[in-house]
Specification:
There is one protein chain. The chain is α/β, with parallel strands linked by helices. The chain folds into two domains: 20-268, Alpha-Beta Barrel (TIM Barrel); 285-352, Non-ribosomal Peptide Synthetase Peptidyl Carrier Protein, Chain A, CATH 1.10.1200. It contains 16 helices and twelve strands. It has helices at 2-5, 47-56, 68-72, 76-81, 100-112, 128-131, 143-157, 177-186, 209-218, 233-243, 260-268, 285-303, 305-311, 313-320, 326-333, 339-347; strands at residues 24-26, 30-32, 36-38, 60-67, 92-96, 118-123, 162-167, 169-171, 174-175, 191-195, 224-227, 247-250. An eight-stranded parallel β-barrel has the order 3-4-5-6-7-10-11-12, surrounded by six helices. It has a two-stranded antiparallel sheet with strand order 1-2.
Length: 400
């Protein structure tokens, strides 16, 4: 039945051939195989969700973003977000910062306390309230500032690898990804990752994989990872073959579908030399319910049941999307207050209902639409010479 679920765009995509792809090196000690990275997503990629994804396959699973300054100041909420599971390895954390001093101090703390094996840095957030203060995807507009931030992180990380993720630029008239990639390479990053959309695009339309191919063509010494529109395992193979990139970053495609990592592990194969295989069919509703309930339980054990069930509402919508009667089911799911209530509601649905093929490529998470990107007044006037940190841009609300 696999052909039903490949999607019209992917019917002719073969699994990975033996030796076709290589593990992605991450510093001197780590190798990422399959070459797949879970994208950091605010409020989503906490350690309970990461463990659910990890149960399905190998790769690298990055934490949700934490902000440098409150980490340095020891704020309890930020330290909580930096939690890892007891047996979680490698411990991969995404850090957001706009000031080289606080970024350097945050990395120094994370490394000296033995909290992390890898630090990823976010320069792709397109949220208006962030870019309007000069943060997120606005930072690469000022390449000297970007360079100073990345340099501070790498310097204080020591042997812990640092990677960076960014977008193509502000809009089509202000593309910054070439400079960002060169800075990452010059300053000693372990890899660079490009979300192949501009900040103005948000998550609209198709990601422009040709930009990933171009970045790969001008980058000589470090791996390039591609991000954007990996909805099925076949998309990852297509992206790597079409662009020559070294690995893929998976974001919205795994929301409510953590078994996507099982499919990715299948098509790439257990080792680079073994070759891949067809992934199994998607789970039926009963299996989806099992995963959702286990996810909710792990979330409740981490943050307490009341808070966990409120946080889980978005996941409930993602897990059930496309199934028969899912709209009315989600209305009830939005009201549940305990894991027991969640389980009762999900168990009432037909466990044998197949996963709906039409839901395979349905967008989850961010909605469509574009924007005019807001930047601080005068931000572009001296962008090549101004390395001053934007003083009001410490907060971050979402990913890139």
């Amino acid at each position: 039945m696999q052909a039903i679920y490949k999607g019209e765009m992917n019917l002719d995509v073969p699994v990975a051939r033996a030796g076709e792809f290589s593990p992605v090196p991450l510093g001197e000690k780590l190798q990422v195989w399959p070459p797949v990275v879970l994208a950091p997503m605010a409020g989503v990629t906490n350690w309970p969700f990461r463990t659910i994804c990890r149960d399905y396959g190998a790769g690298l699973y990055v934490s949700e973003m934490i902000t440098a300054r409150p980490l340095v100041e020891g704020r309890e909420k930020t330290l909580k977000l930096a939690d890892f599971g007891e047996d979680e390895s490698p411990r991969s954390l995404q850090l957001y910062g706009v000031d080289p001093y606080y970024v350097g101090e945050a990395v120094k703390r994370l490394v000296s306390e033995g909290r992390v094996d890898h630090v990823d840095m976010n320069f792709g957030c397109p949220v208006r309230k962030v870019t309007a203060k000069g943060g997120g995807s606005a930072i690469p507009v000022r390449p000297l500032l970007l360079r100073n931030i990345v340099r501070a992180a790498v310097k204080n990380a020591g042997s812990v690898p640092v990677t960076i993720k960014f977008r193509m630029g502000i809009d089509d008239s202000l593309l910054t990804y070439e400079d960002a990639g060169k800075i990452g390479e010059d300053e000693g990053c372990a890899w660079i990752a490009l979300h192949a959309r501009t900040a103005a695009q948000l998550y609209d339309g198709q990601a422009r994989w040709d930009a990933i191919a171009h970045l790969k063509s001008i980058t000589k010494t470090i791996p390039v990872l591609g991000n954007g529109d990996v909805w099925e395992a076949w998309d990852a193979l297509r992206m790597m073959r079409e662009t020559g990139c070294d690995g893929v970053v998976v974001g919205r495609g795994c929301l409510g579908r953590p078994w996507l990592f099982r499919d990715l592990a299948a098509v790439f194969g257990p080792t680079p030399s073994s070759g891949g295989s067809e992934p199994p069919d998607p789970p039926r509703f009963g299996e989806v319910a099992d995963v959702a309930i286990e996810h909710a339980r792990r979330l409740a054990s981490w943050m307490g049941e009341g808070h966990a069930m409120r946080a889980f509402r978005r996941h409930s919508s993602w897990y059930t999307k496309g199934f028969r009667g899912s709209a009315s089911m989600r209305q009830e799911l939005m009201q549940v207050k305990t894991v027991a209530e969640l389980e009762k509601l999900l168990r009432a649905h037909d466990p044998e209902e197949p996963f709906p093929p039409g839901a395979m490529r349905v967008s989850r998470g961010k909605t469509a639409g574009t924007q005019t990107v807001s930047l601080p007044d005068g931000f572009l006037l001296d962008r090549f010479t101004n390395a001053s940190p934007p003083v009001e841009a410490e907060s971050i609300h979402d990913g890139g």
